[in-house]
Specification:
By secondary structure, the protein is mainly alpha-helical. The protein has 32 helices and seven strands. Strands 3, 4, 5, 6 and 7 form a five-stranded mixed β-sheet that branches. Strands 1-2 form a two-stranded antiparallel ribbon.
């Protein structure tokens, strides 16, 4: 074999005949150059990947022993034609096509005739995929060349004659273009020349039957761009439109897919329940209404987008749910028809997250945001506060006002989730946006509770209002955000850690003010927890947790400013000062909130943080790891308490703040990443170490958010299921097919972060 290769392409006085490439053999460059038939069979049985069977689709004996060649062909045929039934077949085909495109240098993508978008490879992949899908049961399409395969698929009605002729014509034109370039340059290339002179020479070498002569360079390039546009629509025209004909009474356009053939095609594209998919397609497209007509126009494109998503079945089901919830609303389908960007964004969301689908069903008008990028960014505190004021002004009844506020919270959570899912908003702005939503929700509940307290009794006449006015206000109240809420680092599943502080008004009795403050706070919490009727499946109620207050669950739900001062002076433990590093006023009386910050600053940013206090923090961290880690959990996959996870980074940063924030003003922030950056600027942490820590923290935060949007039950664990990992990888900014890459990156980054944490937390700080 080596001698044959040298004879064909080795150095010699005359040019080589052609390049011999044996890299498609088992194990590629690392595998033996020649094998026995039995060795091939064993490899394809045990180790071959799905894409290798697609590559074998064109395999045929061309030289040597005809008998041996025939035996080889008989041996591999079963592997080829059963490959479409293998697990992850669709993913492997998509990954192979993506690899081809990804390997093109960026400056060559637009010049690629063979491998680029709308090139020869797109036609070949589409035809081969159809062959593999239908060739399992129909030997008539088990052909080799692309043009012959198009003819065979047409003969048995898997492609319409019109489409087959168009794509066969485009394929031949692209091949002619490729061959002329290679003849011109006398070398193997698939790139359109860049120089004007070379383009003119190429154009003159191509005959144009339409013009009875040759083309100009400009005409050639224009014709090539048109071919690329046609080729890029292959999946829509060849794969999906025949599915509509299979479930309706529409013209079949020469394509007569049986129900089983249509289901085979859907299965090959990634639909796990093809029969259910067919039912959804039929429900959406059957009928003579204008909606059904638009759905028939949209469906071929949407089916392809769902198939490229994480869960094609969920995408199609979600689309049916949302479409039915909107009923005959005119703007919805018209927007999807007229805005391909909005339709593709909707497909991406529906195929990724059932919780988001539920939110869309509850607030279906939010789909209109998909048409404008600006509408998919968090509104911000000022806009939310303004809306809360309007809502409270419109709804005097407490239950109705709170219902409106909670609807706003669901809607804005959806907006933020959509923006992050579509890559429009980064994770830091997402966390800050979620925190702002919860701050405004808590603030609204407090305002409603205060309004109720001071309102006149129901049924009182206006003339009696002054005499029958509600209870006199004796105190002012502020809400202090703690934990993730205090750091404006909320995730989609975060609860709201808070403390409540009050200060009696001038002249008020302190005991009466304390009692009133407790009633107001308890009413605020009740409003936030009050069940909505009828129940809203999409709602994740805001869970407010006040356990970080002095004395925890045993302590008063709200304390006066003086009571906090006494407690922190006399009884507070070191871990409570650590918790205060994330304390931030979020609602209620602003002046009181600022006074609380003034009160706690000396405790969370002390002038002298004693060595024994450092040891207390270290012991507490070890205790938290041992006692709060779920039993039997894999520490390497725990996002919060596991190796190199959120807790490691946050405790390290908080220890830096406790020790150095008195002298370094930049450390006086409730944000983990801002404090880490300030530590770098102050020379307390090396930039390389900070990069490792922030990278692990951000990745764990993204995965945690993705878990919630995906509906993963254990949101604090890196999933092991491939579908969940794939969905979360996309939320984390990875390309399709990166489930394994995400897993490997997380394990590597957190391993490195743990090393940095152990060195700094226990040795250097």
């Amino acid at each position: 074999v080596h001698a044959l290769t040298r004879a064909i392409m080795g150095p010699a006085p005359e040019p080589a005949l052609w390049e011999v490439d044996a890299n498609l053999r088992p194990e590629g460059k690392d595998g033996p150059l020649v094998r026995t038939v039995e060795s091939y069979v064993q490899y394809y049985k045990r180790w071959a990947e799905n894409w290798e069977f697609q590559a074998l689709l064109k395999a045929r004996p061309i030289a040597g022993s005809a008998q041996l060649g025939a035996r080889y062909a008989r041996a591999i045929d079963p592997f080829v034609w059963e490959s479409a039934a293998r697990e992850s077949f669709v993913e492997s085909v998509q990954a192979m096509r993506a690899r081809v495109t990804d390997n093109i240098p960026s400056h060559q993508v637009d010049r690629q005739i063979k491998l680029g978008p709308g090139g020869l490879r797109d036609i070949e992949f589409t035809v081969q995929l159809l062959q593999l899908v239908h060739g399992r049961t129909d030997p008539a399409v088990r052909t080799k060349s692309t043009v012959d395969s198009l003819a065979a698929l047409t003969a048995v009605s898997y492609i319409s004659r019109t489409d087959a002729e168009a794509f066969s014509r485009d394929y031949k034109k692209l091949r002619v273009l490729e061959h002329r370039i290679q003849l011109q340059q006398l070398r193997r290339t698939h790139l359109m020349p860049e120089k004007d002179a070379e383009q003119r020479a190429l154009a003159r070498s191509i005959l144009s039957p339409e013009r009875n002569g040759t083309l100009s360079a400009e005409q050639m390039l224009k014709a090539w761009q048109k071919i690329k546009r046609n080729v890029r629509s292959l999946h829509e025209r060849i794969f999906f439109r025949p599915l509509l004909a299979a479930v309706s009474t529409l013209s079949r356009d020469e394509v007569v897919l049986s129900e089983q053939a249509a289901q085979d095609r859907l299965a090959a594209l990634g639909y796990r329940d093809p029969r259910g998919a067919m039912r959804h397609i039929k429900a959406l497209t059957t009928g003579l209404s204008r909606s059904a007509d638009i759905q028939r126009h949209l469906m071929p494109v949407l089916l392809g987008w769902f198939a490229r998503g994480v869960d094609a079945d969920a995408g199609l089901l979600g689309f049916r749910i949302v479409s039915e919830s909107l009923g005959s609303t005119s703007w919805y389908l018209r927007m999807l028809r007229d805005s391909p960007a909005a339709a593709e964004r909707l497909s991406q969301i529906l195929s990724s997250s059932r919780p988001m689908t539920d939110l869309l069903e509850d607030a279906s008008a939010s789909i209109a945001w998909l048409d404008k990028v600006a509408d998919l960014k968090p509104l911000g505190e000022e806009a939310l506060a303004s809306e809360v004021s309007s809502l409270l002004a419109r709804h005097e009844d407490a239950a109705e006002a709170m219902r409106a506020v909670r609807y706003m919270r669901r809607r804005e959570t959806l907006r933020t989730a959509m923006g992050w899912t579509l890559g429009i908003v980064d994770i830091e702005d997402t966390c800050a946006g979620l925190a702002a939503i919860d701050e405004c929700t808590i603030g609204a509940a407090l305002q409603i509770a205060l309004r109720e307290l001071q309102a006149a009794p129901e049924g009182a006449e206006p003339a009696e209002a002054e005499e029958t006015a509600g209870e006199k206000l004796l105190t002012r109240i502020a809400v202090i955000g703690m934990g993730r809420l205090g750091g404006a680092e909320n995730g989609f599943g975060s609860d709201a850690d808070v403390m409540f502080v009050h200060e009696p008004l001038d002249g008020a009795d302190e005991d009466a003010a304390q009692e009133q403050a407790a009633r107001i706070v308890n009413r605020t919490l009740a409003l936030l927890k009050q069940p909505v009727k009828p129940a809203i499946r999409a709602e994740r109620p805001l869970d407010v947790d006040a356990d970080l207050r002095p004395e925890g669950k045993q302590g008063a739900i709200v304390r006066s400013l003086d009571s906090y001062r006494s407690y922190y002076e006399r009884w507070a433990e070191t871990w409570e000062f650590q918790a205060l590093t994330r304390a931030r006023p979020i609602a209620g009386d602003e002046e009181l909130g600022e006074a609380f910050v003034e009160l706690i600053d000396p405790y969370r940013y002390p002038a002298n943080f004693a060595p024994e206090q450092v040891q207390q923090i270290r012991r507490m961290k070890a205790r938290v790891e041992n006692e709060r880690m779920p039993h039997g959990a894999d520490r390497t996959r725990q996002l919060k308490l596991g190796r190199g996870g959120l807790s490691d980074v946050e405790w390290l940063v908080q220890l830096v703040q406790l020790r150095h924030a008195h002298a370094v003003p930049g450390l006086r922030t409730t944000s983990t990443l801002k404090a880490l950056n300030a530590a770098v600027e102050a020379g307390l942490v090396e930039a390389a170490d900070a990069e490792i820590l922030s990278g692990a923290w951000l990745l764990a935060t993204k995965i945690r958010g993705g878990n919630v949007l995906r509906g993963v039950r254990q949101s604090d664990t890196l999933p092991s299921g491939r579908a969940d990992l794939e969905a979360i990888a996309r939320w984390c900014g990875y390309p399709a097919g990166s489930a394994r890459a995400l897993e490997e990156d997380y394990l590597r980054q957190t391993r490195n972060a743990r090393k940095v944490y152990e060195r700094l937390f226990f040795e250097e700080l």
